Amino acid sequence: MIEYEETPGATVRCVESDVAGRRVAGHATPYSGEAAAGSPFRFDPLERRLVARRASGRVAVGPPDAAVWSRAFSRCPPGPVVVGPGSPVEEIRGSYAAAAEGAAASGRGVYLLDPEPAGLPAATPRVFVALCVWAPGADREILRRLSSSRAAGIPAGALLPVLPGWTDGPDFLDVWFARVTAAGAQFAAAVPAAGGGDERRTLVEARAQLDPSSTDAFFEKVHHGDWEGAVRAGLRQFRDEARRRGMRAMPPRPIGAGEPASNSAAAAHLEERAVELEDDEHRSALLHAAARWIDESGRDLAPVVREGNFGKVFPFGALAAEAEAAFRVEGAR
Fold this sequence. Notes:
The chain is α/β, with parallel strands linked by helices. Helices cover 43% and strands 17% of the residues.
């Protein structure tokens, strides 16, 4: 039995994080708690770990009032935010839709994490992007969320955790790409799974439940293999497969009503370059910092670029030419 308890406040963590290579400035959880019917596991793309879910327990439900969520988001630094995951009781409770609408009302771009159809906000051009995340035994759920998001006019795609020995093989990827493409995915992104001790134990538990015959081989891969090296190889494999199919390997960046479109597009370009150059950790970190600076600049930088003064205000001299070029490319569209 799952008990849903209403809370008067909105649960928003104003902590910068990353989802599939995109910077996010905060995370709202309309439904807090790991009790749910259906799949006993979910993958958290912010924490990058598989989470075990209970068949009974308590779930805290946020307010179905967009204004409350909007005020909570106002405390976060500038930039896109994540809302989710959703819950099957959304049609009754309405917390997810309220959080998404509140985030949009605060002027932000919004990533909708695992939205239930009843929680999808009214589509607004470029404000929302739906992220539907693979979880063990939950194929139907991700396909349903993809289809309903696309039907609602919201850009949507699929996220796949890279789990060496499980989700990184060519046979698995062939089937996965075929299914999400058929459901209307406009992009497909890989998320590297964390490899700490607790995370690995949960992975082995999940694999044992779904495919007991593979448990021993998977245990050896997880606990005695080169986890970090295998994850890096899996990321490369995934991106190669996405390119071969003509799919974007990163989510598009949503653009909030309160941020200059040119700033958001330039920051998105720098985030994409950071992922391309992630083996060069120093330059990748600089690119992410530059994207954050653009988000937090507080003004439309396109006129500064046109006037030739961007290099005077941009604090990352080594990246000035690349950042300025990103603005010029957007301006030419």
